[in-house]
Amino acid sequence: MIGFVSYLVFFLILALTFGIAVLGLNLQWGYTGLFNAGVAGFVAVGGYVMAILTGPARPEVLGGFELPFVIGLAGAMLAAGLAAWIIGLMTLRLRHEYLAVATFGIAVTIHLICLNWEYVTGGTLGLIGIPNPVRAFSDSVLMQNVFYLLIVAVAALVAFVALERIVQSPWGRMLKAIREDEEAAASLGKSPARVRLESFVLGCMLMGLCGALYVGFIGYVSPSDFLPIVTFQIWTMLIVGGSANNRGALVGAILVWGVWVGSGFFVSRVVPPEIQAQGGALQAILIGLILVLTLLFRPKGLIGEEVHVSRHAQL
Amino acid sequence: MFMQHFADGILSGAIVALGAIGLSFTMKILRFANFSHSELLTWGGYLALIFLAFAGSFTDLSASKISPFSFGWPMLFAMLGSAAATSLLAVLLHYLVFRRLARTAGHMTLVFASFGIALLLRHLVLLFWGHDPIYYSNELQFAIRIPGGARVMPDQVFLLGLTILVVVFLHLFLTRSRTGIAMRGVAENPELARITGVNVDWIIIWVWVIGASGAAISGVLYGMTVQLRPELGFSLILPLFAAAILGGAGSLYGAVLGGLIVGLSENLSVMVIPSTYKPAVPFLLILVILYFRPDGIFGERK
User: Fold this and answer.
1) Domain ranges of chain B
2) A299 vs A218, residue with greater confidence
3) Fewest C-beta in 10 Å: which of A67, B257, B291, B300?
């Protein structure tokens, strides 16, 4: 029983951590119609900045500022937001698939930087020994994880409530207006370019927060944590849950992460050890199948878009 | 050194060009960015292994080699077989996924689906053939010295020759054959093509066959001159898109020229930046092109 509970806690920590990135992607794609195919890159920026700000000092590598956990989270969000702002200025003029190609390229480039800029990122080895603040609260690993789950749950809840308020505000309706018909929105005196950039930056800050919470939990960061598969996973979570719905984003995160972990468990039990790496491909195949089948048979996801109307509007 | 990088650039550019032709055609005629196109290169390369083994059961592979190349007629047979099988795979995906979605959903849904299919195809290769690099043959070849001090392998000369042959063939197909002319018509204006009696569904099948065949040949040539590995196509996504966007969607010579520019700038970049950052060069090209032409070079502006 304890084994099951501690596994559930572990599972929920990661599922909710990814859920925060899914919420960010939902703001960008679900509400604004921005196709960000570089999610893994922004998660990586958050993760590395967290490691640099809060990690222990080490020779020949930048960082080791040993700053508090919360400062690390804030710094990670700021850095991801800054990266998104610069990249957004360059790419947000682009439409649809060109934006997808450009953001995909950004993730590839960020991954190359993580691999090769050793002074900042530690190269292929990454950065280790990132302190986890919950160690101070208890000696039991289970209790530590329960504390960390609380931190992640609060972060996810704050992000969720804030986004719910945002998308129902006039600014949120403007996002949807731009998504549906940019010319019409512009003709009403709105500035689509600025609003798209704001939405992109805000969404990427949540992806940075996801990266920071992930690194804070596992205690190290390396380029292999932010492979393109992360982008696929987070997209599938959003599509399965239903885009333009924040509850759907969180439900999708838990479901898809459940399938990923469950199939990984299955492979580790059933597939012989000498072909484990090939068996691991089954996990990714399953994610791809879920994405394609959802698009074919349940295009609005499990929970579709909710209708939000201004309380001043008369229907 | 410049000549060597230049020669390498032309050669890798030829591989990118062959792959980009199909991507460019699907972007123009099917009107979506197909992220799974590059996986057709991987599949083409690996499917050739099956045909090569099949040919090898009738004949001694190393005895049939045509010197100075590392391969003989069984490899040419494998290449044709792989092109046919990869075309079949592409048409199957069209019927199972893309055609259904094109009827019911917006075109961005097609892009998502192509994301999922790319993931599926890449990991199926990993599942079937494993992670280790594979070579078609272990035959030795002797490098040829070309003017300027660069060295190239005989197989690489074959690569370039075959690419030119394919492009000339496609040019004749698009300008002389009824199907090719109808295809250009559909690219320009599908509605007009339909009312003048062109069978648009049939043309779309042809687009997939041409794109997948080009991808398969490109994948085989990559396997022949470099190696086969499951990430072959994935690592070419950005070069292929850069070439297709540079050349303008739907343009045969645009895609070829785009491929050469991408190959050359990748290989010449190592003279100025660390070679570990080489994979980012196509991305920088894409940014530059799209900054000046947000809808692509030959795209229509609103």
Assistant:
1) 2-292
2) A218
3) B300
Distances in whole angstroms, Cα of residue A58 to Cα of each of A48, A61, A116, A226: 15, 6, 18, 23
* DSSP per position, A190-213: --HHHHHHHHHHHHHHHHHHHHHH
Q: Closest chain A residue to B286 measured between Cα atoms?
A: A102
Q: Tell me the pLDDT tens digit for each residue of B248-286.
A: 878 888 889 999 999 999 999 888 888 888 888 999 998
pTM for this prediction: 0.89
CA distance B107 to A266: 36
Asked whether the predicted pLDDT for residue B301 surpasses 50, the reply is no
A86 lies within 8 A of chain B by CB: no
B199 vs A311: CA distance, rounded Å: 51
Give the distance from residue A65's alpha carbon to the nearest chain B alpha carbon, in angstroms: 28
Confidence band of B302 (pLDDT split at 50, 70, 90): very low
Per-residue pLDDT of B177-230, as tens digits, reads 988 898 888 888 888 888 888 888 899 999 999 999 999 999 999 999 899 999
CA–CA distance, A279 with A27 (Å, rounded to integer): 35
Q: Is residue A71 assigned to a domain? A: yes
Sign of the C-alpha dihedral computed for residues B83, B84, B85 and B89 taken in this order: positive
- The domain containing residue A157 runs over which residues? 11-227
**Burial classification of residue A105, based on how many CB atoms lie within 10 Å of its CB (0-12 exposed, 13-18 middle, 19 or more buried):** buried
Nearest to B290 among A102, A278, A282 (CB): A102
A16, B23, B212, B237 from B205: Cα distances, Å: 44, 14, 11, 23
Q: Do A288 and B283 touch (CB under 8 A)?
A: no
What is the CATH architecture of B2-292? Answer: Orthogonal Bundle (1.10)
The pair phi, psi for residue A221, each rounded to 5°, is -140, 135
Give burial (CB, 10 Å; 0-12/13-18/19+) of A11: middle
DSSP state of B151: E
> What is the C-alpha R_g of chain B?
19
3-state secondary structure of A72: helix
Q: Which residues of A touch B277 (CB under 8 A)?
A: 112, 116
Average pLDDT in chain B = 87
Quote the number of domains for chain A: 1
Q: What is d(CA A260, CA B241) in angstroms, rounded to the nearest whole number? A: 30
H helices of B130-199, in order, are: 154-176, 178-188, 190-195
Report the distance separating Cα A60 and Cα B260, nearest Å. 40
Q: CA-to-CA distance for B185 and B192, rounded, in angstroms?
A: 8
Mean pLDDT, residues A97-101: 83
Q: Flag whether A73 is in a domain.
A: yes
Computed over its alpha carbons, how large is the radius of gyration of chain A?
20
- DSSP assignment, residue B98? I
Angle at A88 between CA A86 and CA A93, to 5 degrees: 135
Minimal Cβ distance to B294: which of A94, A292, A296: A94
Tell how strand B150-152 and strand B144-146 pair up.
antiparallel
Indicate yes or no: CB of A288 within 8 angstroms of CB of B116.
yes
